[in-house]
């Protein structure tokens, strides 16, 4: 209850304080990328319950001759790359925190299709609300391997506390300022998680 109250108060205060920045980013995104300005996607939350995460969109909707979206790296724009490197694309997630779907600190919510690929130990990351930032984010972020990332997520689940959350929040500010671990080497986004056996489960 204390963590939820802290999340609610901080996210509400941040939304009010950052409202001029959010409105400016909305206007620039509208000009640079057009509609929709926001990226919405289903993600698993606490106990695997699905919610829709909210972010500023960073890619175009450009499609190839076959009608399919082009690869992420080809749709990423300089403006979108700036949003990601500064973590500004994640500011709308404060609304997810306000609604109780996310926490300020917790394992990052991944794709719904990954749920069936987790080992029982990896699935323990859903024992807490997902976070805007987390222990894995301040210890390598997307530059980590999937195995290391999940190990750090589960460590957080077992060792979470108010003081650890504060430490992670302050470490996040430093990681954002230094723009460390934004993506895996050579990738525009985090590579696909294929499960412990190296391929999607049937």
Describe the structure.
The protein is built from seven helices and four strands; from the N terminus they run H-H-E-E-H-H-H-E-E-H-H. It has 202 residues and is of the alpha+beta class. Helices cover 40% and strands 10% of the residues.
How would you spell out the order of helices and strands? HHEEHHHEEHH
Category from helices, strands and their pairing: alpha+beta
Radius of gyration from CA coordinates: 17 Å
Number of strands: 4
Could you tell me the mean pLDDT? 86
Helix content percent band: 25-40%
Widest beta sheet: strand line-up:
1-2
> Which percent range describes the beta-strand content?
5-15%
For the terminal residues, how far apart are their CA atoms? 39 Å
Largest sheet: 2 strands, antiparallel
Spans of at least 5 consecutive residues with low confidence = 182-188, 197-202
Overall 3D form: globular
Output the number of helix runs: 7
């Amino acid at each position: 209850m204390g963590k939820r109250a802290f999340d609610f108060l901080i996210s509400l205060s941040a939304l009010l304080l950052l409202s001029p920045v959010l409105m400016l980013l909305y206007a620039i995104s509208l000009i640079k990328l057009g509609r929709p300005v926001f990226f919405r996607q289903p993600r698993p939350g606490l106990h695997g319950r699905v919610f829709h995460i909210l972010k500023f969109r960073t890619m175009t909707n450009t499609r190839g001759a076959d009608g399919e979206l082009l690869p992420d790296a080809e749709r990423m724009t300089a403006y979108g790359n700036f949003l990601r490197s500064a973590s500004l694309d994640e500011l709308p997630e404060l609304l997810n925190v306000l609604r109780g779907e996310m926490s300020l600190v917790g394992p990052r919510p991944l794709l719904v299709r990954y749920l069936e690929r987790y080992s029982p130990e990896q699935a323990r990351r859903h024992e807490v609300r997902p976070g805007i930032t987390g222990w894995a984010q301040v210890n390598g972020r997307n530059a980590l391997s999937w195995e290391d990332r999940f190990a750090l997520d589960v460590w957080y689940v077992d060792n979470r506390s108010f003081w650890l959350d504060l430490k992670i929040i302050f470490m996040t500010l430093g990681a954002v300022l230094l723009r460390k671990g934004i993506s895996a080497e050579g990738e525009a986004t985090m590579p696909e998680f294929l499960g412990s056996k190296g391929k999607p489960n049937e």
